[in-house]
Amino acid sequence: MKDIRFSEESMALVQRMMKRYPEGKHKSALIPILHIAQAEFDGWLSPEVMNYVASVMNIQSIEVYEVASFYSMFNLKPVGKCLIEVCRTSSCWLLGAEDVIRHLEKKLNIKVGETSSDGMFTLKSVECLGSCGTAPMLQVGADYYENLNLEKVDALVSRLKSEGKRKTYTDLPEPRTL
Amino acid sequence: MGKKLLLKDDHIAGIQSYDVYRKNGGYASVEKAVKTMTTEAVVEEVKKSGLRGRGGAGFPTGMKWSFLAKPPGIARYLVCNADESEPGTFKDRYLMERIPHLLIEGMITSSYALGANTSYIYIRGEYYYVARILEKAIDEAYANGWLGKNILGSEYSLDLYVQIGAGAYICGEETALLESLEGKRGNPRIKPPFPAVAGLYGCPTVVNNVETIAAVVPIVNDGGDEYAKIGIGKSTGTKLISASGHINKPGVYEIDLGVPVEEFIFSDKYCGGIRGGKKFKAVVAGGSSVPILPADLILKTAKGEPRLMSYESLADGGFATGTMLGSGGFIVMDEDTSIVKNLWNFTRFYHHESCGQCSPCREGTGWMEKILHRILDGHGTMSDIDLLWDIQGKIEGKTICPLGDAAAWPVAAAIRHFRSEFEEYIKNPKSIKDVKHYYRLNNLQSA
Fold it and tell me: Is the Cβ of B9 closer than 8 Å to some Cβ of chain A?
């Protein structure tokens, strides 16, 4: 099994984050640190990763589990390299989110919640992402894809496939400054 | 009329950057407040402005600020609620993405007024890239002396941080947000104590929405009285409206409060009318939580007066014939929309987002979703409508936080105004398949 340990850069960031809060309140950094951990350890939070985060933060493992299991952006099961999150609520739904979801299910040959056999894509339907004026939309990693139609969805899937890279919420062009 | 306050510089190229923002008068409110005003004077201007919380509740901001306890030697906090998750609402994202420094400036001026030396912007996790935009703006503000120790040579010091969430609608509720900011599950707290007395880390805390904080900038620059001249009655100032659904021109509009709803929907200045020449059926005026209104009641009150985009006018008639301005998430539906299916979509949302602390909400939202699903599956009975009515009534007002109410109101309103649609589905299940509840594939492809 791969050694679970933050890279030097991530560890420095984690240490900096814990110092942003008043004395004794460093648990506040848990959610930001879990984002870093998820990005670094294959896009999901295994029990081992959560235990590791607990040890780095010097808190109980249960404190990590209870938070990780509450928030929808933390994956407690392995996911594909690209987690495609299609907004399914309200305006997106009014303007064709179900078509986008059905199209992706057919195209990727998986159902919502499943991962494609090549490990490239996981499909998820999520609640409102605050992009109602540009509906329908979906999110992959940090990026929003808005005003979708089925051709745009096809083009996106092809591009992601040819790039073959893992997408996470934290990978953005600007260096991390948190 | 029609003067923009928050989005006035939206069209300027490069307004995201510090230099351009500063050149266009940015950070003047910080200079004015820190150099020439006492903290009490700033609070007084906000009170005079009549500004009301822009997140949804509409509570007077100046009053909220004046409730902040100030025990000596105890830290106070200002926390900005950027957890924008109310379906139909995307104005805060727009503002933060386009004019990030306006929020940073508002945070500094407001923190000064409240005597907070550490402030946080709590932003929903899905807006990770927006958080990065804000952090960049914060770095620039530090580099130019607007943040850090002894701002503008004064005694006042402030540190400002962006705190990222991880996907939970409930964290938009202020005490759930504080729990989340403390690194815990987003379970709302029982009030009292209110955050003004015991908030973040048990210290006195004010939590304000992004748009509210941004509005403090023009209020301090031009004075509360000037701000109060805009709008109508107790709905002063401008409001960002997120317009979406079956309209020609979805987007974020800054309006003077008091614009007629009819003008807002049909004028080319705003929504530009209903898409594809369809008939107008209904509106959810303030985010998914507020009661849906049929076309006739959103355009005119029950008394026959034109309905206006203001806190009071939208609420005219109570829930029997009115609704709420809420977050300003304005969702328009055309004649092909199935109200029952739309309600199922909303109810599924609340079921998914219930934190699970209170039984009426945790169980009730699930039951309502199942009953609606049964009706849409063609197995509904007439008593299901009464059952839905009964359940929503047993959630409303019986939970720690307002998510229960928010889940109950859409159900009550849909039955109140569109009962015949439920009955039709139950009497004639075959009609369900015929409902065009969203744009068909062809329209979608040509969109």
Answer: no
Which of A164, A141, A138 has the alpha carbon at shortest distance from A153?
Answer: A138
B127 and chain A in contact, CB less than 8 A: yes
In chain A, where does the domain assigned CATH 3.40.30.10 lie?
Answer: 82-163
* Positions of CATH 1.10.10 in chain A: 8-70
**Distance of alpha carbon A8 from alpha carbon A176, whole angstroms:** 13
**Token pair of B249 as six digits:** 């021109």
Helical residues (DSSP H) of B76-196, grouped into ranges: 91-98, 100-114, 128-143, 174-181
**Alpha carbon distance B247, B276 (integer Å):** 9
Chain B, window 150-189: residues with a beta carbon less than 8 angstroms from a chain A beta carbon: 161-169, 180-186
The third-level CATH classification (topology) of the domain covering A8-70 is: Arc Repressor Mutant, subunit A (1.10.10)
Q: What tens-digit pLDDT sequence spans chain B (447 residues)?
A: 578 999 999 999 999 999 999 999 999 999 999 999 999 999 999 999 999 999 999 999 999 999 999 999 999 999 999 999 999 999 999 999 999 999 999 999 999 999 999 999 999 999 999 999 999 999 999 999 999 999 999 999 999 999 999 999 999 999 999 999 999 999 999 999 999 999 999 999 999 999 999 999 999 999 999 999 999 999 999 999 999 999 999 999 999 999 999 999 999 999 999 999 999 999 999 999 999 999 999 999 999 999 999 999 999 999 999 999 999 999 999 999 999 999 999 999 999 999 999 999 999 999 999 999 999 988 999 999 999 999 999 999 999 999 999 999 999 999 999 999 999 999 998 887 655 443 333 333 333
* CATH of region A82-163, choose from 3.40.50.1370, 1.10.10.10, 3.30.1160.10, 3.40.30.10: 3.40.30.10
**Neighboring chain A residues of B441 at a CB cutoff of 8 Å:** 99, 150
* CA B105 – CA B97 distance, rounded (Å): 14
Task: Supply the DSSP string of B217-228, one letter for each residue.
Answer: HHHHHH-HHHHH
Looking at the complex, does the CB of residue A73 fall below 8 Å from at least one CB of chain B? Answer: yes
A94·B342 Cβ contact <8 A: yes
Instruction: State whether ipTM is beyond 0.85.
Output: yes
Tokens 């507020």 belong to which residue? B290
